[in-house]
## 1
Amino acid sequence: MRIAAVIASLLLIGVVLWDAFETIVLPRRVTRRVRLTAAYYRATWRPWAALTRLVRARKRRELILSVYGPLSLLAIIVLWAVGLVFAFALLNWAAEMPLNVAAEQAGFGTYLYMSGTTFFTLGFGDVTPIGATGRVLAVVQAGLGFGVLAIVIGYLPVLYQAFSRREANISLLDARAGTPPTASELLRRHGRASQMHSLGELLEDWERWAADLMESHLSYPVLCFFRSQHDNQSWLASLTTILDTCSLVMVGVRGTPAWQAQLTFAMARHSVVDLSQIFNSKPREWDGSRLPAERLARLRLALAADGVPLSDGPEADERLAQLRRMYEPYVASLADHLQMPLPPWIHERDAVDNWQTSAFERNPQAVARTFESVCRECPDPASPADAGEHGFTLRIGD
């Protein structure tokens, strides 16, 4: 019995330390399915997600979902600490390490207390080992406790820096593609402002963003559960919007950077596919329901009205369908798993951007109209005299 407890404690120490190493230190995706952290997230996310589905109010549901990521991160750190404290207590108890207490007081609870004070380096000194082996184990455990604390202190800033980098581009997309972002709105706004030449720079930024997303979120999958600042935005919706935009450009939109769209599409799809493997989220069967024929026709009319004509005909429709088959099954599967709704291709009705809203204003449309009227009166930035007088200008269409 005691030998089995010694073996079990050593195995538990090894499992916890290796799991912490893979989760925090190892900068690459871990494909092994049998992991403490993977089992923890499978066991906690599913009931948490099921609970939130019972909440009808969207804002309250998003609030509950937003808590899970940071809370689960703290909980897994606590789980590692508890596992190590328990394992060392079991090891000392099973090996019957002598303590500086009466024999009748040296029960498992006393060993557990000593293990906790040693791991967290409290240094009370009321219960200490008196044998050489016990003292060596105490030093090792104290060193592990200090090391875990140091790694955690360095781990959290890395996570939140990656989160901040991710969210910056999502916020920048608000004024460019609407809220929630859509591919049609992104192209229309560039077309209205005669800024199609800047679309290439935008897609290049998002190519790098997708690469950074894949690198950081494969190394630290818990970031996938971190929600955006606004409940109508998400990293998955933004990434899907960029994939939609690249698909339209590749099918044929006059004056757009097709080559850059191909590069961004490849990087964005790579990110989606790899992240779906993290959660073992199998792609859904593609049925094309996200953009039916009648909505595609309305999308073409809306783009053409703003000077962004999309190639028409059966061949163009087939090319678009082929591109959509490459990523929509994956983003749909991730959306179901993470409870992050996908953006539409085109808004059913006029939507208000997040930057136009305020808790102190009841008429965001008035803010948008004021901004548009001011921008319409801005001088043409191509004029050297006007540019020198005003420094810069921003134009959006009617």
Note: The chain has three domains: 2-155, 163-353, 358-398.
## 2
Amino acid sequence: MNRRGFLRLSTGSVLSTITAACSGKRKGTIIVDTRSSDTHKMVPVILDTDIGSDIDDTWALAMMLKSPELDVRLITTDTGDTTYRARLTARLLEVAGRTDIPVGIGIPRPDAPSPQAPWVEGYALSDYPGTVYEDGVSALVDTIMSSSEPATLVCIGPVPNIQAALEREPRIAERARFIGMHGSIRRGYDGSKTIAAEYNVAQDPQACRAAFSAPWGVTITPLDTCGIVKLEGEKYLAVRDCEDALIQALIENYRIWTQNSAWTGGLDPEKESSILFDTVAIYLAFSEELLVMEKLGIRVTDDGYTVIDDAAKGINCSTGWKNLPAFEDFLVQRLTGC
């Protein structure tokens, strides 16, 4: 079951550019940082994603690649068939002209859907001109530990990779911060007043608890904010009709996803987007301007709920929007470049 299953059951813009700088020399899984001081002005980012189940991860990846504030140093895949997810990531990076970004295969889990598989039929990881790490967890650890400045982990799926990385090298928590699309605090899916066991948490509560409790800064977008982001009307059409190769690939994947996913709810890919949960996590990697932020003690329960608890570690939570239409406009501008 994917996030859409849980949904059913739980009831100032910046010009878009793509940084083409080389990501540095690599030997094995040890990554040597050779970036210039200009690149260091950007935010070093690692994306951990379950791309290929819900389509919002694909939107989030496109937004990340279109964000000049972010220096993407690694993408790791998690949950389900992580090799399928790595193939999807690699092909999208190739379309975007970003084969400087390495891809790490994360910890596989059974029984996750693969509705975008037709888009990567016949595409092998050996076809990717960039670097592919079979042990994505080790690559994640090495990337953080070799960075000359603190890294930002943007996690938009369940987080077994992050739990494993913390177990292998606890010091990564001293050299990184965690930003996630996780939880349901005061609102559930579709803005419901009933909180939910949000998918990314409920799939692996123990891993989420480990990530939240680690001694790094944690910021999350729960369903309260990310669960109501959707593009419709002229905003959506501007993205659908954009001629950029990456955006064309995004919309192609969206059309395939609506044909193959059991949880699309009758979405029409010619008229509207799905809920774009993960795009808010990408935004939080470089800005909080449009969001209402609260520091709350958050406890993860064994059944996947995120409960306010004053005795728990304080987490920065985006619990409301200052201006949701402005974020929608920003997202469109970022993706289309106009």
Note: Residues 29 and 196 are 38 Å apart (CA to CA).
